Amino acid sequence: MDCPSWYSALLNTGDGDPSPGDLGNCANGGGDNTSMEFDPCSVSSELLDQVGMGLSCDNGALPPCEQAASSGPCSGGATSGGDAPPPSGTGSAGGPQNRALLGAAVAQALQDLLKPNCAQSVFGGGVAKGYDPATILTDMENGTKYGSIQFGSVPSYAFATENSSGFLFWKKATITINTFNDPSLGIYWNAGNTAVNGLALLHELGHAFNDLFGQGSSAIIFDANPDGTPNLAAENQNAQTLAPCN
Amino acid sequence: MQLAKLIAIAVCLASVVQSQSFDFCDLGAKLLSSDVVIVRVRLGFTMHGAYLLSDRCAHKAPAAALLSPHDPGAPDVPFEIDRESLERLKPFVRLNGGASVACAIVSGVFTTAKSFTTYRADGQLHGNGFGPQGALQFAFVLRSVQTITGCQ
Questions:
Q1: Residue A178: inside a domain, yes or no?
Q2: Is residue A73 domain-shared with residue A103, that is, in the same domain?
Q3: Measured distance between the N- and C-terminal CA atoms of chain B, rounded to whole angstroms
Q4: Looking at the partner chain, which of B28, B55, B67 has a beta carbon nearest the beta carbon of A155?
Q5: For A171-221, what is each residue's pLDDT tens digit?
Q6: Residue A69: its pLDDT value, please?
Q7: Chain B contact for A229, CB < 8 A?
Q8: How close does chain B come to A227, measured CA to CA in Å?
């Protein structure tokens, strides 16, 4: 495998094991020192400092975009040009938002769990260990023993994420729901669609089950590859798994 | 004085707008650039985010998370996404489950996680970078979508 020299240099900016799976053993010195055309003036000075490549722009000048950022006319001009404002806002103007929508979504999810095969097919592994998905979801809604449901800034193209922290009996799961909303792009939480929100909670609860109670506690499988890239097949499978709850 | 100011503005704009088209698989050092670039790429969409995919590249290449300006982790960029680009993305966005893949030509800026580190927990890769688990070292801040079609 070719391991570009620029990447080896970049890896030195990390503090620990910086090896992303994508580049395999490049991080371990597997580079072939391929000479690639590389213009240091196209890279931020901060990054160059981190990389420590001994590169600099002629005359100590800032890289172009930093010049732009430090220049009034440039930064001002670059934001003009007829681009529309960023997508933002609440979508359902005046309606309930964020946590104010949580009660209805949880109620919907609890109803969904009562549908034939929903709880058993999605959370069967955890149920067999004595964990009731309705109880765990309610607990997380209240932010007690098993974790919490939070509302925060998540990248625009995501509905929600789930992460866990701690270990053994002190493990907690956190579902973070995107507060971003742009109805023209899709149905986000703050669109206020209870059916969509309830199903999304069950999806994230499935991830939380596996994190809290061990893999296999939910049929919702981890939807990233070992190297952190998205596992699209797993995402499709998870959508199928949730079909009985829909 | 006026002429000098105009020239300075022109040079600045040229450096910001300067764009060349690359295949995402072959970006190499361009991933480190703060220039606006035009990239041919496969995009993957899930309810946990959107990504520039590298799994079909002929050689090993890093993937990147797709961000919008002002997203968490996105650097300050001198542009916004235009509404037309969002309309083009809409059929492929999968906020409510499942996945889709699109082949697109997009413009924007790459960014790199500072002091990027990863670790494994419960068999999963986590890190301080981009993506739901922070496991991606690179992200791409989207400026526009020039073309986009469904693909495998």
A1: yes
A2: no
A3: 55
A4: B67
A5: 999 999 999 999 888 999 999 999 999 999 999 999 999 999 999 999 999
A6: 30
A7: yes
A8: 6
Element spanning A123, H or E: helix A118-128
CB A51 within 8 A of CB A5: no
With a CB-CB cutoff of 8 Å, which residues 12-41 of chain B face chain A? 12-13, 15-18, 28-29, 32-35
Instruction: Report the SS3 class of residue A183.
Output: coil
Any domain includes A90: no
Examine residue A192 and state whether it is found in any structural domain, yes or no. yes
Residue B9 has pLDDT above 90, yes or no: no
CATH (one of 1.20.1280, 2.40.50, 3.90.550, 3.30.460) for B21-150: 2.40.50
Same domain, A149 and A108: yes
Q: Report the gap between the CA of A121 and the closest CA in chain B (Å).
A: 17
- Tell if the CB–CB gap between A235 and B76 is shorter than 8 Å: no
A211 touches chain B (CB under 8 A): yes
C-alpha dihedral, B135 to B141 to B147 to B151, nearest 10°: 10
The dihedrals phi and psi of A233, each to the nearest 5 degrees, come to -65, -40
- Best of A42, A156, A210 to substitute, by most chain B Cβ atoms within 10 angstroms, is A156
What is the ipTM score, two decimals? 0.82
Are the CB atoms for B31 and B22 separated by under 8 Å?
no
CB contact at 8 A, B17 and A79: no
